């Protein structure tokens, strides 16, 4: 029997052309939601939405840079019929060492990875407020909870998303909009490709030794995008009804240890 958990609900997932966003859009659609696949990569967003439509699901792509006000306004127009679920997932990786970090790059990373989640949420607020089951899920990172080398710009933004979630949850609670945050650990997506083009971080000897063999990830594997999507879907659904402003690490136990 088809899963109809999200039947009759509309969802917007940013950065949904691939990776965790695509897995989330697919899961919500398979559970009955009508999904907007928004991404700066319009061609890949079209492909992702087309694959879902080929499965008989309700999906449409919107090319959109979440840092641009005019693109957010276009999203609002597309969603004028209503919105129940917003997943702020779009982000870029940055691994610039502190001594090479320049202001323009730092500002760009904050704009995409943190500020856009705020402006998209505030733009969608009236639509969400009109829903009786409005949910916002912000995707941060375990790098928003801990400090690691060469992640100043990325970690600052993700740490901002963590506490922005709490502040938004308080401000939007009177409208019945629940706002929560997922912090993924190491996930097998294109974001985990090494910047020098030499392959996937999770295939390196050091990753296999430290994180898998010696159990720095207690569950001893990297996550699949579906592992993260499952937790996101929980925060989007009716079983999440008295939870807001919370932060959940979905990391195989990485942040449970040291
Ligand atoms: N992969 C990991 O190990 C990992 C770990 C922790 C957190 N995360 C977070 O999970 C989320 C998804 O990451 P992913 O691993 O699927 O990465 P990904 O690079 O595979 O996907 C990110 C998507 O965001 C889109 N995007 C980037 N800038 C955008 C913009 N300005 N406007 C609209 N779309 C934009 C990209 O085109 C891409 O489709 C991100 O917030 C990321 O920071 C990922």
- Side-by-side strand order of the widest sheet: 3-2-1-4-5-6-7
For the record, the CATH architecture of the largest domain stands as 3-Layer(aba) Sandwich
Give the SSE string: EHEHEHEHEHEHHE
CATH superfamily of the largest domain: NAD(P)-binding Rossmann-like Domain
**Hetero compounds:** nicotinamide-adenine-dinucleotide
Overall 3D form: globular
Q: Distance between the terminal alpha carbons, to the nearest Å?
A: 43 Å
Radius of gyration (Å): 18 Å
Binned strand content:
5-15%
Q: What class do helices, strands and sheet pairing give?
A: alpha/beta
Which CATH C-level class of the largest domain is it?
Alpha Beta
- Please name the CATH topology of the largest domain: Rossmann fold
**Strand segment count:** 7
Would you give an account of this structure?
The chain has helices at residues 19-30, 42-54, 69-78, 103-129, 152-172, 205-213, 225-236, and strands at residues 10-14, 34-39, 59-63, 85-88, 135-139, 178-184, 247-250. It is α/β, with parallel strands linked by helices. It folds into 2 domains: 10-185 and 224-249, NAD(P)-binding Rossmann-like Domain (Rossmann fold); 191-222, no CATH class. Strands 3-2-1-4-5-6-7 form a 7-stranded parallel beta sheet, with helices on both faces. Helix 2 links the parallel strand 2 (34-39) and strand 3. Helix 3 packs parallel to helix 4 (103-129) and helix 4 (103-129) packs parallel to helix 5 (152-172). The longest helix is centred in the middle third of the chain and has 27 residues, at 103-129. The termini are far apart. The model has no long low-confidence stretch (mean pLDDT 96). Bound molecules: nicotinamide-adenine-dinucleotide.
